[in-house]
Amino acid sequence: MRADSPDGDGSASQAVGLAVLDTDMKYLFADPSYCRISGEVRAGLEGRGISARAALSVGAAPLPAAVLADGHTRSFATPATRCTWERLTVHGEVLGVVVLVTETVTTTDRLRIAEAADRIGTTLDERATFLEVVSFLHSELADAAAVDLLPAEPAAHTGTVADRVASAGRVELLPDHPPRAVLRGRPVLGEGRLALPLALKGRVLGAVTLARADGDFTDRDLLIAQSAARRAAVAIEHARMFAQAQRTAVELQRALLTDPGLPHPNLQLATRYLPSGMGTLVGGDWFETVRLHFGRTLLAMGDVMGHGVEAAVDMNSYRSALRDFASADLPPHRVLRRLDQDISDADTRRPATCLLARLDPARGLATFSSAGHLPPVVFNREGVADLIRVPVGPPLGTGLGGYDILSRSLDPGDTLLLFTDGLVERRGEDIDASLARLAAVRPDPKGSLDDLVDEVLSELDAAHAEDDVALMAVRIRRKAPGEEG
Fold first, then answer.
1. pLDDT for 430-451, tens place per residue?
2. Were both Cys, which of 20, 88, 424, 464 would link to 29 (CB 3.0–4.6 Å)?
3. Distance from the Cα of residue 295 to its chain's centroid
4. SS3 466
5. What pTM did the predictor assign?
6. SS (H, E, C) 295-332
């Protein structure tokens, strides 16, 4: 059933629904409009009572029971519905009650509610959601709007104060704090002000407050603001769940990665691991150091293809295998050959790239071998970078082998940097251009090893990289005066 709208606001019609209940307050009949407006499930409706969901739109069972008892017509209204209950009598016999419910939400209202859904919660960033909801409410309903948020972990004592996290418009019209009733889950409508709880599943996250310089808020304003607040509460909860998942992923990555083994005391070492800005899944970036005989140290930098827990678990198993194979004191290319065979023999393991560097400080010699990995960089004592073009073999796990070695001298003032592709690669950029950006970095030659690593990360904006970043820097340690070999 449709009825012409008297509102003159551009809405052509309003929906009207009809239902009949017996003397036990059980449904005898309900038309499709009634079910849609009230939220009742039409299938198997006959014989059921008024659901808790429908009671929010048409009133709870005691209301029609009172109509049945005394015969007086009663009404029930919400910002979105208006209904009338009457006793049903046929030939003097009371058969039950009949209800007409009118949907007072206009086409314009629906469009504004839909706009709130489109404009609020567009990201999984909590701060962005705060700004979106105040922007929408300020532009659509109020001269000023604000969001106040309760602590994620509520204090044990009562009277916890919510912090204002976003505002828009003429903020001087807003109260310093939302009413306490709102923080307990109840909306507050007053002269020129409207405050609504940000609530989800009965848990209050905070409050939305609106203010007008002139005029009061209407029931329809309340309806639209409530829709925006509900949307914001869901978006905030999703953002928090996403942030928690990110933290869990990073902790898992760090737990699996752990610190590399300590190199020989004749080397200085600095490492960093940065999860990607997207951070949705743990990755397979890893590094390791293994002490060898005669003061030598084997450095490894690897990247298991893909993301997820499986990649991280494979990464950890590759590190373990590397330590085992390196203990045989094989040259780097033969270690890669053993790793390649080990991975290819296990069908469930993912391929990986890997760069090995065996350092011999006594001879000032570094020997490299690469399985599909990006080349290392050496910064000299003046801070000038040199890309070491190591022969590149196939990634580990192909079973093809074919790894080679390259040796070059390493002076006490040099810094060797091994890294994963997240440090340099950028979408749409040729890899040679990416490596050239790294080679153009000129770190302070007087800085510490940690300073150099942080400067490289900063210059390449690694905090906003699209992939995880792992890097390891080493220097041959200079002997202190009077220190013996």
1. 889 999 999 999 998 788 999 9
2. 20
3. 45
4. coil
5. 0.53
6. HCEEEEEEEEEEECHHHHHHHHHHHHHHHHHHCCCCCH
